[in-house]
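Session log. Operator J.P. requested a structure for one protein chain; no other inputs attached. Running the standard single-chain path with C-alpha cell output.
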Amino acid sequence: MRRHVTDHKDVGVGGESSKGVAVDGRHSFARLLRSFTRAGATTGSLTRNLHNLRRAAASRWPLKRPRAVPVREALRIIEQHSLKPACGVWHYSWDIERFFETMWVRERGGALHVYAPRPLNEWAPVAHYTNCGDPVPLRTGKSEPLPFWFLRLTTFDDFLARRSALSSRPADHFPSQETYPVAVERLGCRLEHMPLLGNAERFARWYDALKDTKYNHTGDSCWRGGIASNPGVPLLWFTVSALIENATGACKAVQLGVSDERSLSGINIAAARRSRFGYGVMLAVEEIKRLCAEGANSFDCGISGNYGGYKRQIFLDDVATVVAPKQKR
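Structure written below.
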C-alpha cells in the first residue's frame, strides 16, 4: 500500500491523502524534503512534517533486524502487505489478536515476515504471516523438529481420492475410495460431535475405558490439561467427538479437540483396538467428512511424533518444522 503526503497537512505514520508524493522505503529523505518545499509548506508545518517523517521512516522497510510491534500494528502490516499464513496452513492459535500482545516483524530477502514471539503451547506452530513465495519452515517450541500434522480440506470425495492415489494398494489400504464403504458397513458406527462443556464427565469416562493401559493419565486430567495448556482459548472452542457403535451404543473411539469454526485441532484420542479398519482412524475419517460438509478449511493434530502410525494416513499435508530460536527483548 502506498502512502502520500500533501500540502497544508501534518502527515504522521498513519497519514494518507488522495494526492501528493508517495512515502515509502524506496524514496530518499532528500527527495521527500524537496517535495515538502515544492508543496509550499510553512516553516512550522515543515518542521512538524519532518518530525513525523522521521518517525515514519523508522518503521519503513527493509528491516534487517527483527523488531517487536504491538499486535494491532502487526495486524495493520499483515493487511497492508497482503501477508498470508506461512506454508498455507492454519492453527487456531494464529488468531494473533486473541493470543498475543506483541509480534515480531522482519524483512529478509525482499520478503516480509510477521511472527509470534512464541507458540501458544508445545503442540502449536509459531504463528507466522509472510509474502515470501518460497516455502518457509514452521517454527516449533519443542526441542526437536517434529512434523506439524495438517490436512487441507476441500471435499470428502477429494480426500478419499487423494488417499487412493497415494496408496500402493487402495483396494486394501484404509482409508481410500475403495475401502471406506466397506469400513462403514463392517464397523457399523456413527460420529457424535458435542461441546466439552456439559460433556466433560462423559469424555473422561469414555477416554479411561479406551486409552492404552501404558498411559497413566486419566480422562479427567486430559481435558483439564488441555484447557490449562491453551490460555486464552474460549471454553466453547473445546469439543468432544465420539465414534458410537450403532448396535450397542458403546463408544469405540473418542477425541478431545479445539475448533475455531474454520478448523479442528485434535488434542487427545483414545480408541478400541481392531485390525485393518481401526476405530481411531475411522473417527478421524468421519471427522473429515463432517468438517468438509460444514465448510471448514483444515484439520490438524499439532506438532508431535507419529505415535500409532495413523497420522500419515490422515494428515496428508504435514509440514516440516524447525526449532525456534529464543528471541531477545
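Operator note: The longest strand covers residues 251-259.
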